[in-house]
Amino acid sequence: MRKISITVALAAVLSLPAMGLSQQYPVKPIRLIVPFAPGGGVDFIARLVGQRLGEALGQPIIVENRPGAGSAIGTEAALRAAPDGYTLLEISPSYVINPSLRPPKFDPLNDYTPIALIGKGPFVVVAHPSLPARDAKQLIALARLRPGEILYGTSGQGTIVHLSTELFLYMARVKMTAVHYKGGGPALIDVMAGHVQLVCSPPQTGLPHVKAGRVRAIGMTSAQRIPTEPGIPALAETVPGYEATNWHAMIGPKGIPPSVVERISAEVRRIVSTKDIEGTLHTSGVFPGGGGSPEAVYALIRKDYEQWRKVVIAAGIKPE
């Protein structure tokens, strides 16, 4: 009888880690890897949400910037970590674009655990006032009259800004010429100076110049008009099916226990739905992903991976 009791007790002790993981987690600081340099949009949102997430979980979130190779260095480091919930990764569209430009050392569709969609937002296409096109319909007509003559700026070859424009050109069946910059800021400055004719710009940087009359808004890259700018049409009103968004999500190494995933995901979704965080995200051109479940992250990654892979191939885009 004593042997049976010891066996039962031992089995119960051995099962405790699995049974109590969600209650015990977290018991130490959590690392949130940002695969970009400090100061950019992804870094800002990671720190904004990370601080609140740390407060909610009762452990500090340590943001670690690991830039390089178009975000591949930080991404690979995060996805090679132990799948225990103590290493997380902040991602943006570069996660699904890079595999088509540089062969990755991991499977971007399977070697990860989806956690939460923080939010997403469109770009606004802005043009120099001298461009004789006031909307997408007129822009397409002009591009057909002058194939390849219209210059558009990008934030770098192979970036989401570059691919968003190429997707529009592909779907509208027109040609323009890309001029690549080291960031969206210099591209926007050159649009205002008239050196290039248009660029896809984040709303928080492009719209103030629209309101000041320095550039003209051609359209939003969202599927529908956005509530904060109802007077600016969506490009999809002219090119049905077009949509290009800049999004932010949290993932981790493959194999994080479901109980830990749900704990983090629920907290992130709650955090981004609070009034102050929601307002801050809006000013950054991001609409919080209130329904941003792990399933939503998985579906978005699958969809965008296929979309941008086709654009990279069709446009013959190579890494810088």
Structure description:
Helix content is 45%, strand content 18%. The chain has eleven helices and eleven strands. The chain has a six-stranded mixed sheet with strand order 2-1-3-10-4-11, with helices on both faces. It has a five-stranded mixed sheet with strand order 7-6-8-5-9.
What layout of secondary structure does this protein have?
Layout: H1 2-24, E1 30-34, H2 41-57, E2 61-65, H3 72-79, E3 87-91, H4 94-101, E4 113-122, E5 124-127, H5 136-145, E6 151-154, H6 160-172, E7 177-180, H7 184-193, E8 198-201, H8 203-211, E9 216-220, E10 245-252, H9 258-272, H10 275-283, E11 287-288, H11 294-315
Parallel strand pairs: 1-2, 1-3, 6-7, 6-8
Antiparallel strand pairs: 3-10, 4-10, 4-11, 5-8, 5-9
What attributes characterize this protein structure?
320 residues; alpha/beta; five-stranded mixed sheet; 11 helices; globular; disordered N terminus
Task: Work out the number of β strands.
Answer: 11
| Widest β-sheet, arrangement of strands | 2-1-3-10-4-11
Given as residue ranges, the uncertain stretches (5+ residues, pLDDT < 50) are: 1-21
How much of the sequence is in beta strands?
15-25%
Provide the gyration radius in Å: 22 Å
For the biggest sheet, the summary is: 6 strands, mixed
